[in-house]
TrEMBL record:
The chain crosses the membrane at residues 304-326. This is VWA domain-containing protein. Gene3D superfamilies: von Willebrand factor, type A domain. Residues 90-285 form the VWFA domain. Keywords: Cell membrane, Membrane, Transmembrane, Transmembrane helix. SUPFAM superfamilies: vWA-like. InterPro entries: UPF0353/GerABKA_families (IPR050768), VWF_A (IPR002035), vWFA_dom_sf (IPR036465).
Length: 331
């Protein structure tokens, strides 16, 4: 990360510009008191000589200004911040995208509420690598763990419940997430596993097997059961126009399995029955998993005083030359 900045290293030298005020006042007073002597009556000066004399009246002020600016040492600098990636946390969000995630017991539905809160969570984890796995009847790694959080946020916002085969295979979702984190070099690896149902795929990897694999690799799993207690409007059918039909259905979440996964891996199980409780869950996980990022800042300066000194020297040379030229060939 780089920041561009400008500063005067010794800004107090700029106060010397106040000296210009009495100098200008003194010069104006001298001009008003001067007496025109008609010794050169009838003689005319060339236009170039007139402009050179006017220029010479201001060279001393310009030289002084350049010297003051040089002493103030104007400079630009960039700040580069180096972070040790091994001090951050690798986090994988494993999201259930089965059709039941469109249930309307959260506002406006479970998936939309999850997307908004997950995006807020990602924005707070600036020093961590985060990825995304989606699963229903099968599992897919949508985004490998990355520090490019904007790409991740876009993928979270575009989650589609219809892109994978139907069903709920919690063990498959967890297994794919574990497999991805297997090669992680981070000292802390975390999976946030979210589901709103029970396992419905018989030949899929058992959730407990995936949990044991995670534990053997030092991966901590936080599990979240999403859904109210009781009944919820769930998509249960499709009408002739291809629209989902919602009916009141009993909410079923395999809480014992989610609790076992969390306990096996040293994580924690949460139940989110509303938008506010889901947000609280993410806030608590955010507090439990604190990154310890050791960052160092490097300042790279580019000084400009040397250019001002060369400008002052050039003006002094021009001033000397023009004065010699005027007094040599004109006076």
């Amino acid at each position: 990360m780089f920041d561009f900045n400008f500063e005067f290293h010794n800004p107090y030298w700029l106060l010397l510009f106040l000296v210009f005020i009495p100098l200008f006042l003194l010069r104006r007073s001298n001009v008003e008191k001067s007496i025109v002597v008609p010794a050169t009556q009838g003689m005319t000066e060339s236009t170039s000589a007139i402009w050179i004399k006017r220029f010479l009246h201001f060279t001393k002020y310009m030289v002084l200004a350049f010297l003051i600016l040089a002493m103030a040492r104007p400079r630009t600098f960039t700040v580069s911040q180096n972070e040790d990636p091994e001090k951050g946390i690798d986090i994988l969000l494993a999201v259930d995208v089965s059709l039941s995630m469109l249930s309307r017991d959260l506002e406006p539905d479970r998936l939309s509420a999850l997307q908004r809160i997950a995006v807020d969570f990602v924005k707070q984890r600036t020093g961590d690598r985060i990825g995304l796995v989606t699963y229903s009847g099968e599992a897919l790694t949508k985004v490998p763990v990355t520090t490019d959080h904007q790409v991740l946020i876009e993928e979270i916002q575009s989650i589609n419940p219809l892109e994978l085969s139907p069903g709920t295979a919690i063990g498959e979702g967890l297994g794919v997430a574990v497999s991805h984190l297997r090669t992680s070099t981070s000292k802390s690896k975390v999976i946030v596993l979210m589901t709103d149902g029970v396992n419905t795929i018989e030949n899929a990897m058992p959730a407990q097997t995936a949990a044991e694999l995670a534990a053997s690799m030092g991966i901590k799993v936080y599990t979240i059961g999403i859904g109210t207690n009781g009944l919820a409007l769930m998509p249960t059918n499709v009408d002739l126009f291809g629209d989902l039909v919602f009916t009141e259905t009993e909410v079923q979440i395999d809480e014992p399995a989610l609790l076992d996964i969390a306990r096996t891996t040293g994580g924690k199980y949460f139940r989110a029955t509303s938008n506010s409780t889901l947000q609280q869950v993410y806030q608590e996980i955010n507090q439990l998993e604190k990154s310890q990022i050791n960052s160092s800042k490097m300042y790279n300066y580019k000084e400009f005083y040397i250019f001002l000194l060369w400008a002052a020297l050039a003006l002094l040379v021009l001033d000397a030359f023009f004065r010699w030229w005027i007094y040599k060939f004109i006076t």
